[in-house]
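ok so for the tutorial part 2 we go from a plain amino acid sequence to predicted structure tokens. step 1 is just haveing the sequence, like this:
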Amino acid sequence: MRMPWVLLLLVVWCFPGGVSAKKKELRQVVIQEATRVEGKVHKPEVWYLLPRSNLNFESLNVQRKLSPRIEEETKKAPF
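step 2 — the prediction. this is what the tokens look like for a chain of 79 residues:
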């Protein structure tokens, strides 16, 4: 029963939790001469191809005609 506690204390003692990290130094870059770049900025282009598909409208059956309903709506006052 005491063995796990002894191992736990040994691990905590060997590996302390508060490890200090090294401070990172900031590097500065100073540009002493000017460089001029001339040219055009190209816009990206995307090309894609869609395969042709066979459209089959014969299977669509219109059950009623819409022309009488459209005529009725045009005869009404708009507001």
